[in-house]
Amino acid sequence: MSNLQPVRGTHDLLPEECRRHRRIEEVALAAARRYGFGEILTPIFEFTEVFSRTLGETSDVVTKEMYTFTDRSGDSLTLRPEGTAGVARAFISNGLAQSLPLKLFYRGPMFRHERPQKGRLRQFHQVGVELLGVETPFADIEVIALAWRLLSDLGLAEMVKLEINSLGDADSRADYRAALTKYLSAYRGELSEDSQNRLDRNPLRVLDSKDEGDRRIVAGAPRLGEYLNEYSRTFFTTLTNGLDSLGIPYTISDGLVRGLDYYCHTVFEFTTTALGSQGTVLAGGRYDELIAQMGGQRTPGIGFAAGIERLAMLAGDPPDTVRPIAVVPMGEFGPAMVVAERIRRAGLVAELGYSGNMKKRMTRAVKLNARFAVILGEDEAARGAVTVRDLDAGTQEEVALSGLEERLLRQVEGETHG
């Protein structure tokens, strides 16, 4: 094959993009640890039932987007389209019910067969958290506060807007579903084909439709907030009061329902106008019945997921990492390799110039943004010394080889802490 390309909707993460992704992961993990979350890694594929039962047979993810295949044993397996169901399965499989409350952070690739567009790929990456075992809205407040902290630590607080809504409990949603179905049924013939199918299976999904005709109809539909019972209203009021007390700004969005069947009570999204039409960068909600639905004991939960690609696009290039020391051999390569290894064992980054004349090796050192160049010439080697060139100041000095690491460390640490 003469023209090898990645599969549509996937792409290679080259070093600079990896650096941006790694920063998102590291900032997210640091924020999660500050809130007491431990890390969990689940397999990238599960038995298909893990997702088809939890995401809802009528969801777009299950009906249109999952990568499902049969393995050699005849089992139906699916590449994970999202993280929550896998974490819930792991909770049941590992008997973690005795460890509640449980705070878990995850990261890794997800897979959905959808139309590739800016910031949305068929293999994409997420960070996310799940807080299991707490029924009260204070868990919701803490999870949203963590999301706000993560975005703030990335410097994105001024670029995003928090939207929240309440889906209420099962009783509230049943009352609302009946009212919504009655309203939408009067417009059945005018709804898109997808929405007509959703009307029979899960009418709340119609509220999520992107079809312009559907949107006009939905604009006049009854609002879910009008059907919340007293418990659900009190739950939501406690949530908003808690966000107010923490100084986290938000907007109540009646149309926010989220796309998956397992949500109840709190749903939320952080959106931005900086990425065009695909404006959601972090989203989540509460799912009190999910684990029971999967066969475990009833365990309330709340969590969120954020797309690393979109966060990286917003956050831009991370601050410069530790600048390397360029080791430039002017004679035999072996002694330079030994010096480079000594510098690395001292805790610094060393880059070896493998080939080329002095000019080419120094040009490469500048391109690497090296802080110093350690030049090993034959005359200096005979005296047990090297030349250390300060690439910022343009000055250089001869340094005894025996004191090289100490000299470099003193300079680098002084600049780091200065």
From TrEMBL:
**Looking at its record, which EC class is this enzyme?**
ligase
Name the Gene Ontology biological process terms. Answer: histidyl-tRNA aminoacylation
Q: Where is the Aminoacyl-transfer RNA synthetases class-II family profile domain?
A: 1-324
Q: Give the residues the record marks as binding L-histidine.
A: E82, G83, T84, R112, Q126, E130, R258, Y262, Y263
The GO terms this record gives for MF are: ATP binding; histidine-tRNA ligase activity
Question: GO CC terms on record?
Answer: cytoplasm
Q: What is its EC number?
A: 6.1.1.21
Q: Where in the cell is it found?
A: Cytoplasm
InterPro entries linked: aa-tRNA-synth_II, aa-tRNA-synth_II/BPL/LPL, Anticodon-bd, Anticodon-bd_dom_sf, His-tRNA-ligase, HisRS-like_core, HisRS/HisZ, HisRS_anticodon
Q: Which HAMAP family match?
A: His_tRNA_synth
PANTHER family membership: HISTIDINE--TRNA LIGASE, MITOCHONDRIAL-RELATED, HISTIDYL-TRNA SYNTHETASE
Give the family, as the similarity comment puts it.
Answer: Belongs to the class-II aminoacyl-tRNA synthetase family.
Protein's name according to its UniProt entry: Histidine--tRNA ligase
